[in-house]
Design a protein that fits this description.
about 20% helix; outer membrane lipoprotein receptor (LolB), chain A; about 270 residues
């Protein structure tokens, strides 16, 4: 899911081992076990949904974003896995964690992966990017709302923050053009994630396929997100599980940036376009 580009953040993989005894199962036993282990599709023929735009899927996205925007404060932990493709086409998985504190106005995002760490801070007046491992930071004046900051830092500095897209599908029409350009949007079915019932939706855009699992009930929180880049023949994927806190208590100190004594200030590079 992208704002004309993919902002990715980072998780855990599971592996299955097959024993010789399991390999000796009869075909009927294997088929029975398979039906118990893997959820069936929510549609009789998933391929038949190519080109289908279901109003319910679009409404689910709007309800999700609208609900997130009603919260005065939010806490979020994203555990994610990202595929990186080598020069010879092999997919390598990298893991990482993003922790969010959000209020209006203001946010702090701590992003730590296998290859880098970053902290993004907006205190209502200034936007700061800090690299703890490298010991550099850059600060620039910022507008007065979270939405304006997200738009400004991308247009001016080319910075797209992880998972910001989740907040852009609401009634304010921020992603209206992308809704109109969707190639498919439909409900796959229902799924239970960590004991929580969710609705599973799939979407296709020109260059990405993506899925979102939204909690059922009066708190339509996105609990899982998967993005597949169709521009790359290897089709690298990004997958994350999301854990939310609604209206946690924060103080001004949570959004204040205090650099380390040895940190050096640098300038943010101006974005020259894609």
């Amino acid at each position: 899911m992208r704002r004309s580009r993919t902002a990715m953040v980072v998780g855990l993989g599971l592996s299955l081992a097959v024993t010789p005894a399991a390999a000796a199962q009869t075909a009927s036993e294997a088929q029975s076990n398979r039906s118990q282990q893997f959820p069936s599709s929510g549609t009789a023929d998933p391929i038949a949904n190519e080109g289908t735009i279901e109003d319910g899927a679009i409404d689910a996205l709007k309800d999700m974003s609208n609900y997130l925007m009603t919260a005065k404060t939010l806490g979020l932990v994203s555990q994610a896995t990202r595929d990186v493709v080598t020069n010879d086409g092999q997919r390598i998985q990298l893991e990482g964690t993003a922790t969010y504190k959000i209020r209006r106005p203001g946010f702090v995002i701590d992003y730590v992966s296998d290859i880098k760490s970053r902290r993004f801070i907006y205190d209502g007046k200034n936007f700061t990017v800090y690299s703890p491992k490298l010991g550099f930071y850059a600060t620039a004046p910022a507008p007065g709302t979270n939405k304006e900051v997200l738009d400004t830092i991308y247009s001016k500095f080319g910075i797209a923050l992880p998972l910001e897209d989740l907040f852009r599908w609401g009634s304010d029409g921020a992603n209206a053009a992308r809704v109109q350009a969707l190639r498919s949007a439909y409900k796959v079915g229902e799924a239970t994630l960590d004991g929580v019932p969710t609705d599973h939706f799939a979407f296709r855009e020109d260059d990405v396929d993506w899925e979102v699992w939204i909690q059922q009930g009066d708190q339509p929180l996105p609990l899982k997100l998967v993005i597949v880049d169709r521009n790359d023949p290897a089709k690298p994927a990004f997958s994350t599980r999301l854990k939310w806190q609604i209206n946690p208590t924060f103080t001004d100190a949570d959004f204040a940036f205090v650099p380390d004594a040895n940190a050096k200030r640098i300038q943010l590079a101006t974005f020259k376009g894609e």
